[in-house]
Amino acid sequence: MVRNTGYDEWLDAVADGEGYALTCPNGHASLPPRHVCPDCGVTDLSETALPSAGTVETFTVVHVGTPAFADETPYVTAIADFGSVRLTGVVRGVDPETEADDEQQTNPEPIAIGDPVEAGVERRSNGDRTLVFDPVEE
Amino acid sequence: MGTARIAGVGLTPFGSHPDRTGRDLFAEAAAAAIADAGVPRANVDALNYGNFMGSLAERQGHQAPLMAEAAGLSCPATRYEEACASAGVAVREAVRTVRSGEADVVVAGGMERMSHLETADVTAGLATAADDLLEVRSGMTFPGAYGLMARAYFDRFGGTRTDLAHVASKNHDHAIPNEYAQFRRAVSVEEALSAPPVATPLHLFDACPITDGASAVVFVSDSYAAAHDVEAPVAVSGSGQGTDRLALGDRDRLAETPAATRAAETAYGEASVEPEDVDVAEVHDCFTIAEVMATESLGLFPVGEGITAAREGATAADGAIPVNLSGGLKAKGHPVGATGGSQIVELTRLLRGDHPNSDHVPDASIGVAHNAGGSVATAVVHVLEVVA
Ligand SMILES: [Zn+2]
What we know:
The complex is a heterodimer.
Chain A: H1 7-15, E1 20-23, E2 29-30, E3 46-49, E4 53-62, E5 75-81, E6 86-91, E7 116-123, E8 129-135
Parallel strand pairs in A: 6-8
Antiparallel strand pairs in A: 1-2, 1-3, 4-5, 4-7, 5-6, 7-8
Chain B: E1 4-11, H1 22-37, E2 46-50, H2 54-57, H3 63-70, E3 77-80, H4 86-100, E4 105-112, H5 119-127, H6 142-157, H7 161-175, H8 189-193, E5 197-199, E6 202-203, E7 213-221, H9 222-227, E8 234-243, H10 258-271, E9 280-282, H11 288-297, H12 309-312, H13 328-332, H14 339-352, E10 366-373, E11 378-386
Parallel strand pairs in B: 2-3, 2-4, 9-10
Antiparallel strand pairs in B: 1-7, 1-8, 4-7, 5-6, 8-11, 10-11
Helix pairs in contact in B: 4-14, 7-11
The structure holds zinc ion (ZN).
Residues 24, 26, 28, 37, 39-40, 42 of chain A line the site of zinc ion (ZN).
């Protein structure tokens, strides 16, 4: 696989439990690859460690996927807050089918907003790597 | 600053036309617009053409020259691409060019051909509007992005699937008299609620269909309209565009669309119009939740309160502010690269009084069009006014 410079180094770090954000002197954080801070344009970016766990800010159970994910539907994609940045990943270790069919979409759901998750990396059959979230047992 | 008047509008029927080529579709819409305008083809100074996924869907890049020849135009032609806002930006650049005095006649519109593809391939094509590294590789789809926003909205402001089902049902009702709409049939709230899930909390009737179609609008300058006795009673009085971070997770807010808010502020400012002045709106309801967030960005409802508008009837044909009298993307259909142009077509006809739903807004003089790209990393807003 051809690597994406900057991004794949970052995925390597996430896979090793050493994920980071790029932080500028003005306190803005972003995800690589970056030449400049997207908020203020400064080039002086440094790596700041991400916390070991983030919290789910929103999620969706995807029932209609792209060909790359077609044999995995339904699956859960979530956006999780890791403090200075948010990560988007596929949630593992949950049952996507547990989502209630009722009008309010209330419990039981596969995961809940506010649940803690850890980030990891999975290799997919098409060679891509996917950011994944594993729920943290409280 | 000059005025960009709308001299003519044209559409193809929106729907499933898997056998029709893109050039065939755009030629039909352009011919209708040019005939409606009564402007000689030789007077057209430029073609601004919107298209999103033609390189994937038709294996045809470099489409602007192709569409110029299909439309019988011998003028500079340029393709604009901002995902689902492609025609919106094409229209905006036409408006700016005419206003600047650089051109007297510009045709703007767009085309998308999608229904000949498998659903999974359409899903993959549409997903290219999201960030490949940060989102698509994490399973994000186009419906998935709006599912994430819908759940974030429910969490922050409240709301239920029933509220969204009312948006779908309303827009299906509006589409029934529209001869260009893909789905001219009623969908009850109960039917919408019982449809299968696509990307929760969104289900099938929360989503726009896969659509083929084309749109075209002929813009003329004030001086051209006067000199050539062109009837063009509707003008674009305000145009705004907003851009946000491509990845949803990189935005300040997940349950709002700040790019559209900025686009609306610019457009209203240019037009010297307040949201309260708007009589009728066509907004980008690619998903039901998108209509809610759009009406809030346009200032038609306070942030967090647009969710109940359809349920309460405020956005219905006979409500305080009718939204998507065309049927919207939801029922009229969403040929992605043509949609921004089609909204201008629908609004123009609503304001001129020759739209099948014009009777619902007999006194309307100000309309607003809202066109969004992807999960609203791009938004374009236009204010249309009856000028004579
Ligand atoms: Zn910065």
